[in-house]
Amino acid sequence: MIERTKRPGVTNPGTANAGMAIPEGRQMPKEQRLTPPAWEGGRAAPPNGDAFHVIGQRSRKVEGLSKVTGRAIYADDISLPRMLHAKLLRSIHAHARIVAIDASAALAMPGVHAVVTGKDLPEYYGIIPWTQDEQALCETKARYVGDAIAAVAADSELQAEEALRKIKVTYDVLPAITSIEEGLQHPEIQVNEKASEGNISKHVHLEFGPVDEQLEQSDEVVEAEYWYEGSTHGPIEPHCCIAEFDATGFLTVWSATQVAHYLHRDLAKVLGLPTQRIRVIQPVVGGAFGGKSEPFSLEFCAAKLSMVTGRPVKILYTREEVFYAHRGRHPMRLRYRTGVRRDGTLTGTDARIHIDGGAYSSFGLVTTYYSGQLLTAPYAMPAYRFDSTRVFTNKPCCGPKRGHGSVQPRFAFECQLDKLAERIGMDPIALRRKNYIGESSTTVNGMRVTSNGFLQCLDAVEKASEWRTRWRKLPYGRGLGVAGSMYISGTNYCIYPNEMPQSAVQLKLDRSGRATLFCGISDIGQGAESVLAMIVCEELGLDLRDVRVVAADTDLTPVDLGSYSSRETFMCGNAALDAARKLRDLVAETLAERWGVVKGDIVLAQGLAVATSDPERLVLDLKTAFQAAEARHGTLGSVGWYQSPKLGGDYRGGTIGASPAYSFTAHVAEVECDPETGWVSVKKIWVAHDCGRALSPVAVEGQMEGSAYMGFGEALFETHTFKASAPGHGPGIHDGPSLLDYRMPTSMDTPELESLIVESVDPEGPYGAKEAGEGPLHPSIPAIANAIHDALGIRCDRLPFSPPAVLALLEAGDAHAAWERARTQLARPANATTGIPAAASRTRAVKK
Amino acid sequence: MSSPTQICRLRVNGDERSCGVTPHTTLLEALRYELGLTGSKQGCDKGDCGACTVLVDGDAVLSCITLALACEGRDVRTIEGLADGATPHPLQDALDRTGGAQCGFCTPGILMSAAALLERDPSPSREAIALALSGNLCRCTGYTKIFEAVELAARELRERRAPPGARAGAAR
To answer: Looking at residue A27, what is its pLDDT?
Structure first.
């Protein structure tokens, strides 16, 4: 049954990848895939002289002052003349056939203008082209409590809400699938009819190298089962959109989205409008974290209601609706077998993963691959197998939350490493160093690794946390734990197969001395627009205040695929670098010609154009330099774009997880636990992250701290769970769909966070930059789990590490003896660094 | 179902303003939708997230669970009234410099809570800052840079208020 593919050592059972119907393979890019220009001296070097002038500076964000003064305009701040307000009617059952909908009483109410139901928007859509299984409003069946059924537009939000209560829905209640186990045991109760088999959303089985052989030859094998609880993004801004369909048949949609381009495409599909008659604008977005990375019911419904009424329509989700809209972290049950030799070399890993997908596919196809594909660095794995199954359940759909699909396996695997290190009496940092995959390497599943600063990350957290003198030496109740990870700097391929650039920038250079950059980039708070402005300033010598970024407006800006998979800095950054360098060279050429010097002599920096050979005499202010270039070459404008090289493993699914560069992270967490109450307090997390070159250190630190915080919340507090039943009600009601009940950490809970930036300088990133937005979340959870073990002698293999869970573990065995044993068993090897020379540290420690 | 509309008079950021409200109109709704002051944000509409925080007679209150009519004749200060004309308040400036505003949605509420804190405690400890901001959820930053910003602003405000001689000494 197992057939060998072309790649030696890779087995790929062709029949096992069951689930929703997917065409055989995806259309691989042609060999003549676009290749970005290779600039003389590469992309990593400063363009003007020997040093950077703007890059690496602790600068303000371009939109920062508008945010702190309350001027920034978010979706709900937009109000249009004659605007109506709409609300969605949502299912009260987890699983029910919709027999009839009677909206006549609602329509008859004063102030109500229109009602639409599933029959008005029958077209299926979905972010992944092969798994389009959603309708804007359920036509025949509701699949979770909160599934949208009808939409009402009225003069006011209150009137729309009152009208919802007048809509009579006749349900035929069906038995509901509430867990992975039920989904697998009851294929006859099918949640999602688009599934090709029972409740299997997607199944992936991939094997690389001789796993069983390697495990047999191991000195120690650890096998354990982990449970990763679901959690949600919780951006403080709820989803909101305004749609306006005008008399010319043109639709404009303002939406709090992080993927304006994909929304544009899906609006056209569902509404039956040509794409050239739709404009999508992303206003300032109040947080997303992956929670706004696909279309939602509100955008289709607002647009349809605007088409029906001829008036602008706004929909603002309530906080409760945001919880039910979800698309957050998938709950996963993960079983790992991992082997190690006595010298610390990892041998083989065998993973079996079950994923609770909720009612729809969302990005689930990718999630299922990511649950295995993103584990194969920073450690070299000689043999690796994973078998992942995503199951449909009658719950809100899960999707991509910061660290999509790979946070859960990373938790399990980094805990495995801690256990293996203990078994062989090795320092867990030494074990991690020992298995370092290296720079310019290839992972067992065929992913190309370029720059890699993981060792420097380990060095940084080891030093900052005083690991060597404190780990396994703190008194009972206190402990340190370490974990590492890697993450992609953008997924290598667009969601829908095509050969066009993934990111593009248009740059206009004005004779006033001002530049305007147009890009589809989606800034969701991470500072994406500022990074582009910094790149333009670095190339052209401008001040940050003299660049305007026009972003994420499908009428004005060239396509960027959006803010997901940590792609913006790398991909849009490269596009901006190209656009700006083209103009920089034009200006330099003009001046070189005029001054009779070589082009390489010209430097544009700090508002001036200078010939370095004679800076006293050959100098112009930038405005005059731009005017000279405009007179010589005509109106100054340029385009830049980015397309990643062809990458990935040569097997089905081998492109998923492929990225032009990977970031690396290591955390050490320090905890203080109360064995009487089970309370775990995280005192501090040291976060070392290799982001390539830190273009904006303030933004990078912000991402590192925010990521570590979010992982900390998942580890200790947050649960996106549902009631088995409620009085007079079936299953599927959220346990606490509010920001009070859903335990998002507050300023009182958050640990001290110390950012340690590691700069490996990637050869293909813009000035060497890689991602920083998602990678630093991963190690938080296992570092805390491993620290709890150091503190109490217990292994927290299930999330969250809540007081009852910790108490139960303390009571289940002799934790104190395990704690003592861990101390005495450790025979710290003299060659703790395993012969790998201490890397020349490029760590920039940021002292708080 | 429709409630009678009445006139509500508020003193907002120093201006006498009035708008039509129902008895159940919240202060946040009046500010955002009647007076065009959209700087105060609605994140939950039930007093959980703090994005709507404004100052009423100097105290930080959650405007989404405060009735507009309960503020009749009282002094309301919003994020739009924090700056001194075109010059940002030291808190606004510090938050921008430290990167304490990422998506910016919680930011107006954070700033108003912090402003109320610095009014009553010019030299707050980090614990006092954390406590003062514990009703304001921020999902982006992990709070670290927000704490730094409040400390930075507090320092700057203290220096401004200090007599000139002391300030010169502090600068060294």
So the answer is: 52
Half-sphere exposure of A7 (CA within 13 A, CB side): 19
Characterize A408-439 residue by residue with b for buried, 16 or more Cβ atoms within 10 angstroms of its Cβ, and e for exposed. Answer: bbbbbbbbbbbbbbbebebbbbbbbbbbbbee
Cα–Cα–Cα angle for A680, A685, A689, rounded to 5 degrees:
145
**Closest chain A residue by Cα to residue B99:** A698
Domains held by chain A: number: 3
Contact A235 B142 (CB under 8 A): no
Q: Which range marks the domain in which residue A427 is found?
A: 400-493+650-830
CA distance A824 to A476: 14
Share of chain A above pLDDT 90, in %: 90
Q: Closest residue of B to A525, CA-based?
A: B103
pTM listed for this prediction = 0.95
Taking all residues of chain A, what is their mean pLDDT, rounded to a whole number? 94
Topology of the domain comprising B90-166: DNA polymerase; domain 1 (1.10.150)
With residues binned 3-state (H G I as helix, E B as strand, rest as coil), the percentages for chain A, rounded to 5, are: 30, 25, 45
Assigned domain for A797 exists: yes
pLDDT tens, position by position, A580-635: 999 999 999 999 999 999 999 999 999 999 999 999 999 999 999 999 999 999 99
CB atoms within 10 A of CB A831: 12
Residues A473 and A549 in one domain: no
- For A261-274, how does the pLDDT look when each residue is reduced to its tens digit (9 = 90+)? 999 999 999 999 99
Contact A469, A547 (CB under 8 A): no
The CATH number for A523's domain is 3.30.365.10
Contact A643, A571 (CB under 8 A): no
Does residue A505 belong to any structural domain of this protein? yes
Q: Which of B110, B111, B116, B34 lies closest to B69, judged by CA?
A: B34
Residues in chain A: 848
**d(CA A71, nearest CA chain B) in Å:** 6
CB atoms A65 and B88 under 8 Å: yes
Residue ranges of A 682-711 with Cβ closer than 8 A to chain B: 698-699, 701-702, 705-706, 708-710
Q: Is B80 on the interface with A (CB under 8 A)?
A: yes
Q: How many CA atoms lie within 13 A of A121 on its CB side?
A: 32
Pairing of strands A313-316, A478-488: unpaired
* Domain spanning B6-81: CATH 3.10.20.30: yes
Nearest Cβ partner of A705 from B33, B49, B144?
Answer: B144
Identify which of A235, A750, A753 has the shortest CB distance to residue B103: A235
Contact A747 B134 (CB under 8 A): yes
Closest Cβ–Cβ partner in B95, B142, B145 for A708:
B142
Q: How far is CA A361 from CA A131, A182, A267, A456, in A?
A: 6, 18, 18, 39
A842 band by pLDDT with thresholds 50, 70 and 90: very low
Q: How far is CA A640 from the centre of its chain?
A: 25
B97–A67 C-beta distance less than 8 A: no
**B164/chain A closest Cα distance in angstroms:** 29
Query: Residues A629-686: pLDDT tens digits?
Result: 999 999 999 999 999 998 999 999 999 999 999 999 999 999 999 999 999 999 999 9
- Contact residues, chain B, for A739 at CB < 8 Å: 43-44, 48-49, 137
Please report, for residues A481, A750, A777, the alpha-carbon distance to residue B144 in angstroms, rounded to integers and kept in the order given: 21, 9, 16
Q: Please check whether residue B53 touches A, CB under 8 A.
A: no
Give tens-digit pLDDT for A327-370.
Answer: 999 999 999 999 999 999 999 999 999 999 999 999 999 999 99
Q: What is the ipTM of this complex?
A: 0.96
